[in-house]
Amino acid sequence: MKKNEMEQLFISKFGGSSESLHVFNAPGRVNLIGEHIDYNGGYVFPAALEFGTTLAIRKRADGKVSFASSNLPYTAELKLEELGTSKTGEWIDYPIGTYVELKKLGISLTSGYDLLFHGEIPNGSGLSSSASIEVVTAFAFLSMEGKETNKVEIARLSQRAENQYVGVNSGIMDQFAVANGAQDHAILLMCDTLEYKLVPFRTGAYKLVISNTKKRRGLVDSKYNERRSECDEALAILQKREPSLEFLAHLKPEQLEQWQGDFSNEVLLKRAKHVVEENARVLKSVDALSANDLKTFGELMNASHDSLRDLYEVSCLELDVMVEEARKIDGTLGARMTGAGFGGCTVSLVHEDSVERFVAEVGQAYKERTGLDGEFYVCGVGDGVHEMKGEK
Ligand code: ADP
Ligand code: MG
Fold first, then answer.
1. Ligand 1: residue whose CA is nearest its atom 24
2. Which residues form the GHMP kinase N-terminal domain (predicted)?
């Protein structure tokens, strides 16, 4: 939402004028390639989206903090000292949990505030509206209190808010991408060390099309744990040959080929192959994008999906159908599932002239083959969290 529209929305809710009103924005995110690699010591490669969560915020004199969202009806007005004393189970747990983490770092609010959120990210679709609302809150509170806004620290404390206060166990990628993303760039991130590099990703005439399968993700937790322990087993086999190997993703594809005879269990070998080759694909993607070679990047996206389907076995009919149909459209450079799998979204790189056809034809074929109404979000790569200043 534009800054002046957000100001109008805020004023119609809380009254007063736009003087001393500040507007902040944090994007959603999508992982472009590098799936099921983070817990194996490899790279993820997310990008911030052009749409996200906007927050309009203004100090108030009576020491109360008021929360409202244009997306959800629940509102609350709490005294400063009440913040974080009891979980509500409502959406305000996300911004309040973020404040609880700021307080642990010794940063308290010195006045009351009115906050109005407006989210453009569909909730619960895997595009990380939760990280977006956490990160925009942390950035806004720090800015309003005149404190330093270190985006890596903001990502870390937002992740803690989600893990500890909200109680959802998630890795650091989402908050990191939402905080540190940059327009026309993807983020090469090592989740363990938080070492990262911004890689040019000029999509030009191409758009990211995110296709939501709308399939409920029932299996994801149990299969996730199963894959993690399979990777541990594969690592143990390889460590007999490579004693200094700490993580599966640190192995090169040619090393795995050399030791593949050690695997009596075909399934473990398939899992290891996915991890080692997917990590190599991330690094190849960095080279391709640095050379502005979107075609090669699209091929790597395709290979990633096929590996997740055949070797890692975390896809499902709905994701496969969405990807198959996407690849039939002229102008699609690549398509793959994104996220943990068993449902959720796919991401495709599609020429802007083909986007309309893509949405119509993929949507129709998907419905015919699965009975489900998919949903499509078209966007470019946006900026990480920031204050909307000159923007209208
Ligand atoms: P995802 O992060 O994939 O979108 P989650 O279930 O992790 O899904 O987070 C969604 C939740 O985050 C919502 O149900 C709501 O509680 C909160 N949330 C996100 N954006 C907003 C918003 N703009 N206004 C209010 N609550 C929001
Ligand atoms: Mg989330």
1. 69
2. 99-181
Report how far ligand 1's centroid is from the alpha carbon of 117 (Å).
Answer: 11
Q: Which of 96, 130, 137, 159 to mutate to test the pocket of ligand 1 (most atoms within 8 A of CB)?
A: 130
ipTM > 0.90 for the complex: yes
| pTM exceeds 0.90, yes or no | yes
- Lowest model confidence (mean pLDDT) among 33-37, 46-50, 190-194: 190-194
Cα separation values, 311 from 249, 250, 296, Å = 15, 18, 21
Compute the half-sphere exposure of residue 193: CA atoms within 13 Å on the CB side of its CA: 9
Q: Please say if the pLDDT value at position 63 is more than 70.
A: yes
Q: How far is the CA of 211 from the centre of ligand 2 (A)?
A: 17
Distance set, CA 257 to CA 103, 270, 274 (Å):
50, 12, 12
Known binding residues for ATP: 69, 124-130
**Phi and psi at residue 350, to the nearest 5°:** -130, 135
- Candidate of 69, 123, 132, 377 to mutate for ligand 1, largest count of ligand atoms within 8 Å of Cβ: 123
How far apart are the C-alpha atoms of 362 and 237, rounded to whole Å?
43
